[in-house]
Write a structure and sequence with these properties.
It contains 6 helices and 5 strands. By secondary structure, it is an alpha+beta fold. The chain has 2 domains: 30 residues; 150 residues, Yope Regulator, Chain: A. Strands 1-2-3-4-5 form a 5-stranded antiparallel sheet. The longest helix has 30 residues. It is elongated and about 70 Å long.
C-alpha cells in the first residue's frame, strides 16, 4: 500500500470511529501505576484527582477540599490552585506518597500553616519556616515495588500507601480548618 493510500485510509477510519480511537489513545497512554492509583482514588468518590501522568498522580481528599483555599503560586498543571496536595509518584523500584505544602499568595498564611502542621506532629524541614519557601513536604510514606508493570501488585502497594495516608487525613484536616477558617 502506498503511503498516501495508507494515510487516506487512516483518516477515513478516524473520521468514522473518532470517539473510540480517542478513548483508546487516552487510556493506552496511562502507565500501570497511574491507572491503578486512579482506579483506587475513583473507587468510592472520596478523592479529587487534580493531575495525573504516567509518573505521578496528584489528588486531595474531598474532605480537605472545603478548607483549602485556591491560593497556590506553583503547580500550574493542577485543575485547581490548591496550595496543599497529596501525590503518589512512581519511581524505578519504589512508590512514594507525599503530602506537600507549596508557596501561597500570602506568605504569612503559608508560614502559619507550616507552624500548625509542625505543632500537629507532622515532620517539616527547617526551610518550611522560611517565608520564601516554595515546597514543604510534611508527610511521606514509601513502599518497594518489584514490578511496576504488574497491575495487581501496583494497586496493592498503592492501597497500602493510601491506608497509611488515611490515618493522617483527619489530623491534617483539623490544621487546615483552623488555619484557613476566617
Amino acid at each position: 500500500m502506498k503511503e498516501t493510500e495508507l494515510t487516506q485510509l487512516c483518516k477515513s477510519i478516524y473520521r468514522k470511529h473518532r470517539d473510540a480511537i480517542d478513548l483508546i489513545v487516552e487510556h493506552g497512554k496511562k502507565g500501570t501505576g497511574q491507572q491503578a492509583v486512579e482506579d483506587l482514588l475513583e473507587k468510592d468518590g472520596s478523592y479529587e484527582i487534580l493531575y495525573s501522568t504516567s509518573s505521578s498522580v496528584w489528588f486531595i481528599p474531598k474532605s480537605w477540599a472545603k478548607w483549602l483555599p485556591e491560593n497556590a503560586v506553583v503547580w500550574p498543571n493542577l485543575k485547581r490552585r490548591v496550595s496543599i496536595c497529596c501525590w503518589i509518584e512512581f519511581l524505578q523500584d519504589r512508590m512514594h506518597l507525599h503530602f506537600e505544602l507549596c508557596k501561597m499568595d500570602d506568605s504569612k498564611l503559608r508560614l502559619k500553616c507550616a507552624k500548625q502542621l509542625k505543632k500537629a506532629n507532622f515532620k517539616l524541614g527547617a526551610k518550611a519556616f522560611n517565608e520564601t519557601a516554595t515546597y514543604s513536604r510534611f508527610f511521606n510514606v514509601v513502599r518497594k515495588v518489584k514490578d511496576h508493570t504488574n497491575f495487581d501488585e501496583t494497586r496493592d502497594i498503592a492501597e497500602k500507601l493510601l491506608t497509611k495516608a488515611e490515618e493522617q487525613y483527619p489530623i491534617a484536616e483539623a490544621v487546615f480548618k483552623n488555619v484557613f477558617t476566617k
